[in-house]
Specification:
about 220 residues, alpha/beta, 9-stranded parallel sheet, 5 helices, 9 strands, elongated, disordered N terminus, disordered C terminus
Length: about 220
C-alpha cells in the first residue's frame, strides 16, 4: 500500500523512505499513513527475530494509539529501516499474478509481494493467502477465482476487508470472520469475483499469539 503521509523529524526518514521536510517537530500530529509505516517496520522486525511476540504486541498497541510523530519514532529507534527492502519489493510488484494448480496445495505467506490482480485457476487443491505480513503496495486487490473443490482461505490483518458479493457459488459457502473493529482505516480491500465450485471460502484474522491468550480477552480499546 502506498499512501502519502506526514513528515517526521528534520533529516530523518520515515519507515517508508520518505524524508521529512524542514521544521517538522516531533510533536506534529501523526497521520494514519505514519502509523501504517511504523506497523510495517515492527512486523518486519518481528519476522527477522528482532522483537519477541510480546514486544511486537506492545509496540503495535503503541503505534496504533500514537498521536504524534515523536511517539512513533520512539517505537522504532532501535530497529533498522525497511525502506531498502520495501523499495525492492515495490519494484517486483506484478500487474497480474496467475496461479494454476491441480491437487497440490497453494500457500502464500510471510513477506510475499501482493500483485495488483490475482488470478486463481485451481482444481481440487487448498489455497491459503496470508496477508498479515505481505508487502502491499495498493489499497485494492481483485482476485479472479476459478476454483473447484477444497477451501480458499484468506488470512487478514487490521484494516483489511473482503468483499465476496460478486463471487458465484456452486455447492459452496462463504464464511467471513473479521477482527474486532478498533477504528483502523481500511488498508486493503480484497474483491473476490469469478466462481467457486464445491468447497468453502474462509476469511479469518490471524490467530492470537501465546502472549495474547495469556493476557486474556482484549479490552474494547485494545487489540485482540
Amino acid at each position: 500500500m502506498t499512501r502519502d503521509g506526514d513528515a517526521s523529524m528534520p533529516g530523518e526518514s520515515l519507515p517508508s523512505g520518505n524524508h521529512a521536510g524542514p521544521g517538522s517537530p516531533p510533536e506534529l500530529r501523526a497521520s494514519h499513513a505514519d502509523r501504517d509505516r511504523v506497523v510495517e517496520v515492527l512486523r518486519v522486525a518481528a519476522g527477522d527475530g528482532r522483537l519477541t511476540a510480546d514486544e511486537l504486541d506492545e509496540r503495535l498497541d503503541g503505534a496504533l494509539s500514537a498521536q504524534t510523530l515523536g511517539e512513533l519514532t520512539a517505537l522504532t529507534d532501535d530497529l533498522p529501516s525497511t525502506a531498502d527492502s520495501l523499495g525492492a519489493a515495490v519494484a517486483e510488484v506484478k500487474d497480474v499474478l496467475r496461479i494454476e494448480q491441480k491437487h497440490s496445495p497453494v500457500t502464500r505467506s510471510g513477506r510475499w509481494v501482493v500483485p495488483r490482480r490475482l488470478v486463481l485457476d485451481v482444481k481440487w487443491c487448498a489455497v491459503t493467502l496470508d496477508f498479515t505480513r505481505a508487502v502491499i503496495t495498493q489499497d485494492t486487490l481483485r482476485i479472479d477465482v476459478d476454483m473447484r473443490g477444497k477451501t480458499l482461505t484468506l488470512i487478514t490483518g487490521p484494516g483489511m476487508v473482503v468483499d465476496a458479493d460478486a463471487l458465484r457459488l456452486d455447492y459452496s459457502r462463504v464464511r467471513i470472520r473479521t477482527a474486532p473493529d478498533h477504528g483502523e482505516p481500511i488498508s486493503l480491500r480484497i474483491e473476490l469475483v469469478g466462481e467457486k465450485k464445491h468447497g468453502r471460502v474462509v476469511v479469518r484474522p490471524a490467530r492470537r499469539t501465546l502472549g495474547q491468550w495469556l493476557r486474556g480477552p482484549a479490552s474494547p480499546g485494545g487489540r485482540g
